[in-house]
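Predict the assembly for these two chains.
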Amino acid sequence: MEKTAKLQTGRTMKTKGKNAIRRTGGERVFDVLNSIFLVLLCIVMVYPFWYVLVLSFNTGSDAASGPLWLWPRVWTLKNYEYVFGYEALQVAFRTTLLRVVTGPFLTVGVCMMAAFALSKRNLPGRRWIAFLLILPTFFGGSIISTYIVYAKLGLMNNFLVYIIPGCFQFFNMIIMRTYIEGIPIDIEESAMLDGAGYFRIFFQFTLPLCLPIIACFGFFSVCNHWLDLQSNLLYVTDRSLQTLQYVLYQVINSSEAAFFIDAGASADTVAASLDAAAANTTPTPEVVKMTVMVVVTFPILLVYPFFQKYFIKGMLVGAVKA
Amino acid sequence: MQANKNRLNSKTHRAFLRRCIPLYIFLLPAFIIVILFQYLPMFSNYMAFLDYDFNNGWFGMASPFIGLKNFEFVFEASFWKMAGRTVLYSFTLMLFSFPLSLVLALLINEVRHETFKKVLQTLTYIPHFVSWVTVAGLFYLFLSTDRSGLVNNILELFGLKRYPYMQDANYFLPFLVISKTWKEIGWGTIIYLASLAAIDPQMYEAATVDGAGRWKQCIYITLPCLLPTTSVLLIFELGKMFTSNFDQIFNMQNTLIRSKTDTLNVHTYYRGVVYQQYAYAAAVGLFQGVISLILVLTTNYVTKKLSDTGVF
């Protein structure tokens, strides 16, 4: 009986379960151990980020002098001052922001339109179209053949390479299609009787009804664009088009502090670092790396909890389909 | 169906087709993108058979045909070593990530307190929203020999020596497993939790009546019910076995251990993009692609035979 109670997520069954529960001693021990384990797991998940935050707010010279655990010993905002003055990061921030704003619209738009069309079961040639669209997911181009094609299409050092090639995702489209198929058909039929074509049905009925799934994939797309390193690594060498992840990659993999000044740090930054040197708060490469990491990583982590309910919904539709 | 419609009334059929025009227009963007960015690269795999010159003809496809000359790497021991390493890494990662996510899902499923459950899920998903660049950065930070290297700080408390773990290729695979687990274990539970919620509670009731305990229920009801989900996930993972984990391995490596930890993907990236040996890299890539396809078809066939679930 307790198993039933446990499995119920519905509210009604839960109250019923509460009355029915008779936990044995062994199960109580298990529950306690389980909770302890899960709490420890959460700490493992979160502590690294906390540690990075602590380092980014500590002065570099002090961080190098001895281990830090939970709280900065010598507070400073100099690291952030220094990092925000780093021009490559500002440029990358603008590029990434532009990407994150335009990319999801394209992806969701293209996928939703295709999903809508393929959800119409009587569309002539539907199976063939689906087959043509799925084929490349099983056998596509390799890294290099893709690279060559993109180069020939003029996508090298072009902002479009970030947002266009990846904007159609077959499996996302299938999940959207499943969602659209779940919408009651009567709405569509009555609209059709009123003389509405598919264009009107799509924009006036389907899109508003699909908002949850649109939010879900919009957010996924925002994440993908924010976290993507590969497209920058492969196709973009232009400094003015670098993304945040690429800058972070470069910063983490450079061992000298001089990197920042070489890499085109602005005069302000140099001045700031000289000031800092005078006050013995010069950011060391170590803390600068951590500060850049905070700047690059945290924005998405702060947004994500607000979207959690949407993406779980999206995953559920996907899971049912799979 | 089309013929049937024609026989009934060709006029209504034409009207029906006209109604469908917007649908084809809706499909157009997806089609253009797939053709340009997926089919063209697929066809340009052909360059693996050419003495490829980027500037020779349309897409460099007028370069002289040299047959299988670019595929001579299959006779090199170093290639097979790398291929073996690729499979070893992917396989080990799979071996850990599947069962661990499943176990975590079962444990979270046992939690009765709803708020605690929610918080748990929110916190365990966090690392999924972090890039491999950051994860690698964290590993280098935590394992560095500097004062900020937390792991070494702790080891020192226990009287052990500070050691540069990230610079030792022997630790590479364990770190791949740990980082992957840390990053994706929580995220992997979503799909399992969804399938768990879909299991018919009556089965558990019946099992309880028959006197089965929690453990037995898990073995005889929960796990078999999760089998379809798991096998579908497995098919996708196995298909990617030869080509996956680029971001992870690329970021976790460093120049000191690169020659000992390169996988095929990372290798083709360096040889093709960095050193511009296009034809060679394309040949390796095509080889990977063909193997992946064979893997997908085989696993799909096998799982279909074993458990009646397949992707196609």
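Residues 285-321 of chain A form the longest helix (37 residues). Residues 2-56 of chain A form one domain.
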